[in-house]
Design brief:
Rossmann fold, binds adenosine-5'-diphosphate, 8-stranded mixed beta sheet, binds magnesium ion, globular
């Protein structure tokens, strides 16, 4: 199986990009898929949610340094940490904060993530999911240049709809500029759903369903999500029988990662 290259992208903050990356990735790992998560946000929420250490730019290679200075296969492999069976992570580092500024002066500035992650293509990963920071900048261009698939986490908020229009326009522009095919959109995941809805939230929810991209997941607000994070686990490890774990499984099926027959 060729590794799927997935960007979890939305320039809006707090829509559960990190949470979706974490628990979708955990679900895939629990189903025997060797999965690599990449924390491309300097805040490192994905890294800390899994209780992994950030990489230290003063002690060795980081993803940002590899992108800026280049690296070989051994260098790329040195970025990867094992969290648990089938689940691997390239942790965040503080130098991701200055990465966009430093990338601007480089040639082929939007190709650099591809250069690094392609070095890991032969390591048997089935899926690679990149958790992006909430921005549309040269670092997100790097993710789009690399990605074969895009999954868009949203929340039930009016601004989610505006943010999505901007995001789709950015992808289209980049594809045209780089003469690359557009990535395949898996669809939208609506996160942090808190029912019963007010009339206003119902309207926004309906408007999200009316968007041109399919809704492939609906994840309710649950304390188990916060509890799993406190333990450094994915929901598939912490509470595999919970409704929210099942909803991440449904997402994995509907978005096309796992077969329809998944239990
Ligand atoms: P983003 O990466 O888009 O900024 P996060 O994944 O960090 O968003 O989510 C924002 C906050 O919402 C975090 O504190 C996260 O733990 C919480 N959260 C996300 N999804 C859920 C959920 N389904 N249930 C409860 N809390 C959630
Ligand atoms: Mg995040």
């Amino acid at each position: 199986m060729v590794m799927t290259r997935d960007a979890l992208l939305n320039q809006k903050g707090g829509v559960a990009k990190t949470t979706t990356t974490l628990h979708l990735g955990g679900t895939l790992a629990a189903h025997g898929r060797k999965t690599l998560l990449v924390d491309l946000d300097g805040q490192g929420n994905l890294t800390t949610a899994l209780k992994l250490d950030r990489l230290n730019p003063r002690e060795g290679l980081t993803l940002a340094r590899a992108m800026l200075e280049g690296c070989d296969r051994a260098g790329a492999r040195s970025l990867v940490r094992r969290h648990s069976e089938n689940l691997y992570v390239i942790p965040s580092a503080l130098d991701l904060f200055t990465l966009p500024r430093n990338l601007h002066s480089k040639r082929s500035s939007e190709e650099r993530l591809t250069w690094v992650l392609e070095l890991l293509e032969e390591d048997g990963f089935d899926h690679c999911l990149v958790d992006c920071r909430p921005a549309l900048d040269v670092d997100t261009d790097n993710v789009l240049r690399w990605a074969s698939h895009v999954l868009i986490p949203v929340d039930v908020d009016e601004f989610s709809i505006e943010a999505l229009e901007l995001l789709l326009a950015q992808v289209q522009t980049l594809a045209a500029e780089t003469r690359m095919p557009q990535p395949h959109y898996r669809g939208l995941v609506i996160n942090r759903i808190d029912r019963p809805f007010s009339g206003f939230h119902q309207k926004v929810y309906d408007a999200i369903h009316a968007l041109p991209l399919p809704v492939v997941g609906e994840i309710p607000l649950r304390t188990a999500v916060a509890e799993a994070k406190n333990r450094g686990q994915t929901i598939a490890q912490y509470e595999p029988r919970s409704d929210v774990a099942r909803m991440f499984r449904d997402l994995a099926v509907k978005a096309g990662y796992l077969p329809e027959t998944t239990p």
